[in-house]
Amino acid sequence: MGASNTSLHISVPSGPACGIPLDHIVIAAVIQWRGRIALFRRSRRPSHDSGLWHCITGFLEAGATPEQQALEELFEEAGLQAKDLQALRQGRDIVVADGSGTPWLVHTFTVLTSRRRLKINWEHDSYRWTDPRKAKRFTNRVTWLDSVLDATGHGTATVPAPEARLSS
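Below the sequence we write its predicted structure tokens.
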């Protein structure tokens, strides 16, 4: 495993899956529109993180690449289709420990969209657009959100420029 930050329980992976079981590999996608990012509040229906703010997430399904899974989750959770996306940028992969100390490999992404209105599914009861520098004002956010924002370049004063374009 790569370098670790013990105060945040985060490390940067050094190998492809770092020995983490497949059922502990997820994607986290930050949606960006006109310099703002979308934060989503978990509804009471999922069994975890109820009422907490976070980004789009999902388990990496067998046979899917992280990019494919990110696109699937963006469609399922936010109603974004390929035509709504201007760019998909992969951030750093990070390892985050849950409350019991179990490591999770997180493939991070930023997606630029042309759509302001999102269509959320049952996993969320609300979403808000915010300046990335103001994300910390959402005091009831999941503990790992800051790590994902840092990994995608949204944890700093500048918002990342799109580097990877979706192919048509």
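Residues 34 and 119 are 18 Å apart (CA to CA).
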